Aminotransferase (Thalassolituus pacificus), 455 residues
Amino acid sequence: MDDSDLKKLIAEDADVILHPASSISALLSNGPQMICAADGCMIEDAQGRRYLDAVGGLWCVNAGYGRAELAQAMKEAAEKLSYYHTFSNASNPWQVQLAEKLLSIAPAGLGKVFFGSGGSDANDTLIKIAWHYHALRGQHKKIKVIARQQAYHGTSVSTASLTGLGGFHKEFPLPLDFVLRVECPHFYTRALPGEDEAQFCERLIDEIRQLINTTGAENIAAFFAEPIHAAGGIIEPPAGYYQKLKALLAEHDILLVADEVVCGYGRLGSWFGSPLLGLEPDMMATAKGLTSGYFPMSAAFITNEVWQVLKQGSDKLGAFSHGYTYSGHPVGAAVALANIELLEREGLVDKARENGAYLHQRLHDVLDSNPYVGEIRGRGLLAGVQLVADKAQRRLPDAGDKWPLKVSNAVRELGVIVRPLPSVATLAISPPLTISCEQIDTLVMALQTAINQQL
Ligand code: PLP
């Protein structure tokens, strides 16, 4: 494609495409940022400018861009079996191999995998499985689902309802009323004056206990939790939270669902975030890093105990009646398997832990003393930089000041991409797990320069 073709496409873009999560008028006046190529941790736009992508696309390019072995795995599978469905007991070898591999690395207790196309449908599937599981056991009223403020679980009708970021509900009739909302477990912004972390944790668990009591456990199916909130601000709950939560939910026959769509596949320096944070899931949603973004695919996990109930239901009803055209897609399964093997072969999960420690160290070294940086948080290669207007009071900037956007735009001018999370005044970092220490230095210095320039 030559330059004039590209210019034409850039000019036409906003006339023909409704972009996801984008400002339509900004697109109409400025056009899109057209990305035409990528390799390693770098992306390249139509003007030939290269950027260090410290977000890994949308928190998904764990293996890095342009990996020939992943393209090859897709090519081989597509040539052999471009597609066949997996409804009505059909299968293909790639999805079986992938499921076996995934179960060998999954958190203890998870025994079966359901494949879909993305994070929203994985969570949607698990909402339905939670309902179905309870209904098959005679608990037809167990329909409510608990989710937290500042959670992000997707944008389908049901998962946008679970999402606890108000922007995703405005002028939509959402959230649907099956959702019950509880406090975001962020000590830095949500603790009461004088409260320590243990007291904060107790208060959060008490709130959930009270909600269960007032709603009635017989009406509640599940609790959804990202081990670390990603789009909601890179938020890790206080120590002991997940253990207490699990005990409380188990007492009331409420399923605990881990949304590992961002945390899974090495991001935090372990295969999954749940074991790291003491979260024992009954079900788990994954996507993104499953294929490192090379193919849209999700894997939702359930325990054998849940599966036994679904089996009895299938015997009774004739089938487990849920699925997608692309469930278990052979090309997706082939590239997911190749991706997991690549992460293993190159030791990228360990590298995420080691280079993650370096990233956090550098962020602290350079930004701790900055008056506009309140908290640096996260684990492994997932980090958040909290911007504050008043450090002593932990007061966040006014949304209208657009600090995260201003800083991330200035970082971009310096050749680095970070993700602004405007509603929580945070800058998010989740680079490919292949990022080097030199690239981490570049990223941290760009952040420092941009913050100093803009604030
Ligand atoms: N869950 C989490 C934690 C996510 O961060 C996302 C997307 O960013 C989703 C679910 C939804 O995934 P998708 O956009 O693939 O539907």
The first strand starts at residue 35 and ends at 39.
